[in-house]
């Protein structure tokens, strides 16, 4: 499943994220209790959920009313209070990551260390409620086990009055938080993206894309913003099933002209043990018409350094080419194990099943299982393939 967070039209704020999550099925009564209890130590809030229409779009509005304004807490004391909340550890940890993003942005903007910062946005009880509520809903919906894709954020325009005076939109803290993300100005002369909303977005998103990938939408939630514009001021979150999946890989290459066939075969096994996703060796003609081989390794980014070190060590190569962060399309895959009786003995065979758009496109038995049966029974491998259907 893929979750799409779509702030392209009206930006993003903490209460809009919560509203959209409630629209997707999060328990509003439970969230109200968690948010109000969590914000109590920071001044207190009153939370209400209402179903409203924004220019014809039915959406959920999460209204967070501050009962007391508290702008003086420093970062270390603030984090201590968050750690003391009676919440699941993963909710606490993710929330602290979000607050840290905002704190770092504030420190960059004001040229201060984290210990010297006194929050203006984050220290307020409504921001605590927004972050805790968003994270709690995220986990309650099981979205932590799904892929979260964010689309570019509309940040608005013009100027806004803050505790530091009148500043341009997007606010400096928003620009810092969205480094590595994507934003676009407009479509109105107003602030659309808050630091809190942007920090939640950046923490929850696994990937940020320019457009929605190929998906099959299953359910859509809309979280309403407080302001009214000439367009629907809502945040859209789409819950979808995948038609196909995408992945980022590194392709690592080097030319070989001095290894024997046995050494290349050994290299293949060593690279697979080092974490390579796939290894191929292709005969090539090199400069001066020398025969050689092109070694190509597909690797996850996390295994890149180990793969490169292995190639250098095993081949003595003086140069390795790396094409990082290449995208590949992959079919959804599942594994199924079936038991077969051959010559009076039972054998388990695992099948790899590939799906695209919910349809099976391939169903292949694992080679190692077939090899084991062939060796154990004395049957030819092709005969074992015929028996395993």
Explain this structure.
This protein is α+β, with helices and mostly antiparallel strands. Helix content is 33%, strand content 34%. It is built from eleven helices and 18 strands. It has helices at residues 14-23, 28-39, 75-83, 89-110, 125-140, 172-177, 195-204, 261-273, 304-315, 367-377, 381-387, and strands at residues 2-6, 45-54, 57-66, 147-150, 153-156, 159-162, 165-168, 183-185, 207-208, 215-224, 234-242, 245-256, 278-285, 291-299, 321-330, 332-342, 345-356, 359-365. The strands form six sheets. The protein has a five-stranded mixed sheet. Strands 13-14-12-15 form a four-stranded antiparallel sheet, covered by helices on one side. Strand 6 and strand 7 (165-168) form a beta hairpin. Helix 1 runs parallel beside helix 5 (125-140). The protein is elongated, with a radius of gyration of 27 Å. The chain starts with a strand and ends with a helix. The mean pLDDT is 90.
